[in-house]
Amino acid sequence: MRSGAGLVTLGIPKSLNSTIIKIKPKEVMTFPLPETSDGTLSLSGYKKIKDFVKKVDVLVVGPGLTQNKSTQGLVRKVISKIDKPMVIDADGLNALVGHLKMLYAIRYTLYAKILTPHPGEMARLMGISIKKVQGNRKDITKKFAKDYKVTAVLKGHNTVVADYKSNLYVNKTGNPGMATAGSGDVLTGMIAAFLAQGLTAFEASKYAVYLHGLAGDLAAKEKTQISLIASDIIDKIPEAIKLCS
């Protein structure tokens, strides 16, 4: 929302709704969904999601979903069946491990798919070592984007953004203090917000990565790298945007 998304709705297991309402930002809406016995999103909720997203611009899939079997099945069905601009992160990526052929089936759909793995997630997706990913960050990201007709964002020091049209961007903002819980989720939200405002998948990813790192640098000056947490990055997004306007 700090990056310009006008309305955000959070799909959650229905039993969490009363709890979430008490702690979430007032501006965020909630969408209670069927759940598994473990309290995670259930595959049985697919139809509700399919009906709801007809009126949304962008879908974010992954953060906080867990690797429950039914939940992962739901994720794969959403990715393969729903034709909306989509940012896939965290457990959304985990659901694709061993199922990347699914992306072949949807790569010519109208809307963009953006995947945002960290090196460990990229290694699992491609079945290679983290060392190989880190030793060939640009080539690995370019290959993944080209092979699966997606935009790929390989997070970490000098985050790499590549798409299947051979666009490439290596980011120079950011600092080690941003390697903290939730920082990647902030980036995912920023990418989705820019995508919803009409930027292409590559542009949305590139600008989000740059501004995310800049916000982190601004936050580190105030909080120090050691004390930096994800919400500090969010607080500095408006200042980062002002500096670039």
What does this structure look like?
- The chain is α/β, with parallel strands linked by helices and 245 residues long.
- The protein has a domain at 112-244: Ribokinase (UDP-N-acetylmuramoyl-L-alanine:D-glutamate ligase, 3-Layer(aba) Sandwich).
- The protein is 47% helix and 12% strand.
- The strands form two sheets. It has a six-stranded mixed β-sheet with strand order 3-4-5-6-7-8, sandwiched between helices. The chain has a two-stranded parallel ribbon with strand order 1-2.
- A hairpin with a 5-residue loop joins strand 6 and strand 7 (160-163).
- The longest helix has 23 residues, at 201-223.
- It is globular.
- The two termini are 18 Å apart.
Oligomer: single chain
Q: Could you tell me the number of beta strands?
A: 8
Q: What's the story with the biggest beta sheet?
A: 6 strands, mixed
Shape: globular
CATH class of the domain at 112-244: Alpha Beta
Which runs of at least 5 residues are low in confidence (pLDDT < 50)?
A: none
Strand percentage:
5-15%
Helix content: 40-55%
Question: What's the CATH architecture of the domain at 112-244?
Answer: 3-Layer(aba) Sandwich
Determine the structural class based on helices, strands and strand pairing. alpha/beta
Q: How large is the count of helical segments? A: 11
Mean pLDDT: 95
The radius of gyration computed from the alpha-carbon positions, rounded to a whole number of angstroms, is 17 Å
CATH fold group of the domain at 112-244: UDP-N-acetylmuramoyl-L-alanine:D-glutamate ligase
Spatial ordering of strands, largest sheet: 3-4-5-6-7-8
